[in-house]
């Protein structure tokens, strides 16, 4: 991200004073566009060492959102952020944001880019289900998982009533698509909290990315594919953690970064919130509370995230338990 600064300095003041000008700029990707078979995904890697940390943003978010964390992690090991298909500089695929395509894309991307396993996968928000699905598909490649405010409370309105997607039937979810044209809303013209915590140059980049995403999104053509895929993955993960057996991932290093404190053991199989379920995935798990943080912990408390990732990296290298502090 650092080499963005010289390129973008001249446009920062203009973009801040006239938001619409920011979206008329063209910003090059900080990393490489990797062809994974007829389409390209954006991958940005820094640093050296093993394990390689792979940063995955949440729904509708971008690789630039890790800009406050990635350089800190790169001081100690290899670290990569990337954009899923259809986001930022990455081309769309046939089934964007589905678990199946996301896992397949990331596997191809890392292999073709010659990024070497083992990987410490970091998933923010809904990214948590993707990293867990990746570990299930390619367990030999994954050295650890880090969930940052991983969410399973994703809902939809059905006949005017809210429901969580894993509580709704497939038919109920399908009935909510396509969306209304009015759901598109106005064009974005600023980057507000928490994205205003990014440096000024990257706020301009992010506004441009947001605007491009808004431009191409057609709610009347939206399909239920990604939502149904998420529902399927949630139910699969619940089935794994609803059993009487804890530590379904054995001693795989697992970190749960949450704005809330750890739940009591009596709630370890709950579906109500993600953290209690994730806290018991492994016998080598720590729960780190980001007190006072908003949902995007990597933007509110980047130092805490970087320090926690450093602990996980050290434990993987030394084949030890993750230290609690």
Characterization of this structure:
The protein has 325 residues and is an alpha/beta fold. It has a domain at 31-153 and 245-316: Rossmann fold (3-Layer(aba) Sandwich), CATH 3.40.50.1820. 34% of the residues lie in helices and 16% in strands. The protein has 11 helices and 10 strands. It has an 8-stranded mixed sheet with strand order 1-2-4-3-5-6-9-10, with helices on both faces. A two-stranded antiparallel sheet has the order 7-8. β9, α9 and β10 (285-289) form a beta-alpha-beta unit. The longest helix is centred in the middle third of the chain and has 17 residues, at 200-216. The radius of gyration is 19 Å and the shape is globular. The two termini are 29 Å apart. Mean pLDDT is 91; it is low at 1-19.
The spatial strand order of the largest sheet comes to 1-2-4-3-5-6-9-10
Report the CATH architecture of the domain at 31-153 and 245-316: 3-Layer(aba) Sandwich
**How many β-strands, per DSSP?**
10
The fourth-level CATH homologous superfamily of the domain at 31-153 and 245-316 is: Alpha/Beta hydrolase fold, catalytic domain
CATH fold annotation of the domain at 31-153 and 245-316: Rossmann fold
Coarse structural class: alpha/beta
The geometry reads as globular
Radius of gyration, in Å, reads 19 Å
Unreliable spans: 1-19
Strand content: 15-25%
- Total helices: the number is 11
- Secondary-structure element string: HHEEEHEHEHEEEHHHEHEHH
Jot down its keywords:
325 residues, alpha/beta, Rossmann fold, eight-stranded mixed β-sheet, two-stranded antiparallel ribbon, 16% strand
